[in-house]
Design goal:
Layout lengths: L5 H7 L25 H8 L14 H14 L3 E5 L2 H12 L5 E5 L4 H10 L6 E5 L7 H4 L4 E7 L11 H10 L3 E5 L4 H4 L9 E5 L13 E5 L1 H14 L5 H11 L2 H20 L4 E5 L9 H7 L6 E6 L2 H11 L4 E2 L9 E3 L11 H6 L6 E5 L5 H13 L1
Parallel strand pairs: 2-3, 2-4, 4-5, 5-6, 10-11
Antiparallel strand pairs: 1-7, 6-7, 8-9, 9-12, 11-12
The structure holds pyridoxal-5'-phosphate.
Pyridoxal-5'-phosphate binds next to helix 4.
Amino acid sequence: MSDKNFETKAIRTQIERSQFQEHSTPLYLTSSFVFEDAEDMRASFSEEKERNIYSRFSNPNTSEFVEKVVKMEGAEEGYAFATGMAAIFSTFAALLNSGDHIVSVRAVFGSTHTLFTKYFPKWNIETSYFDINNPSEIEALIKPSTKILYAESPTNPGVDIIDLELLGEIAKKHHLLLVIDNCFATPYIQQPISYGADLVIHSATKLMDGQGRVLGGVVVGKADLIREIYLFSRNTGPALSPFNAWVLSKSLETLAVRVDRHCENALKLAEFLENHKQVSTIKYPFLPSHPQYKIAKKQMKLGGNIIAIEVKGALEAGKKFLNAIKMCSLSANLGDTRTIVTHPASTTHSKLTTDEQLAAGITPGLVRISVGLENVNDVINDINQALNS
Ligand SMILES: *Cc1c(COP(=O)(O)O)cnc(C)c1O
């Protein structure tokens, strides 16, 4: 399968058929698996045999989902989690020791930020942050105890772009593990491993499911690192459910066509909003006005489905705009078939102080739009009427 193209890998990677010769992979809703005899049981537990034992360790449906993501990202191995946050937490927890240090981009997903600031310090793991507009400061932040260089690109919610090639070079030079949250881009748009990432994390809840149904997470990358993450997870229990894995594996079969349309719609909406008199700033990676447009063009196949705008009149105007929305959803999710509008300062990033929000590029009037798969003219009309109201 490694000789096949992206879409084919997403569709044609499948676990062995059962005796019924089904075409579509069935759902293996079972918590455990049976052994032939005592010797089979012993060999399975000692890992002399690779086979399913218990669905907290592995399950045919989770294996199929993971194998697809491994191939789509160009990774060696992977493990699937109940949520994106379980994947992020387990990765750090499995690989870091007390006294280790993380260097991360400042603008990370809200709950990841909470891990860094509230929980990891309890275990003596500290994080230093670099500014998206100043990647030259990264090297100055690196200490002898630094283990992981961490970033998201595009960032949430500011849609800033970080140069993955540069991060790969810095990680290599300083012998750091480069870990990238590739949730906003998906492996269809960008493959961080080709720039030297050791691990790539996804919240599968977003574009991978793409239909707002299930939660899930996945980590893929180097086999020795995944082994550590697997052992940690097998013992601590953040595993993805077989049902959600089955849904997600099916969803990946349509990822490429969905993301193509998501991005086409997003670019059309971004071009419309760029000239709108009620919009003071707009950020979309594939608009030439984006501050990191050149880097986006270098490392991304398409611009993604997230647009960040600043409504003229800041907080009050932002609230008024949201209240005037008629069709689009006000929801905390993203990467759904339905266009979603959110106000990060009062929702996803409300746990940050005002200073932390501003440092992460979250201004009071910032509105994040996750462009869906409706006819884009209907999306444009709804957002336009809300802006003009
Ligand atoms: C949603 C999201 C997460 C967390 O994923 P969950 O599945 O909600 O736990 C992590 N990173 C990014 C960039 C996200 O958008």
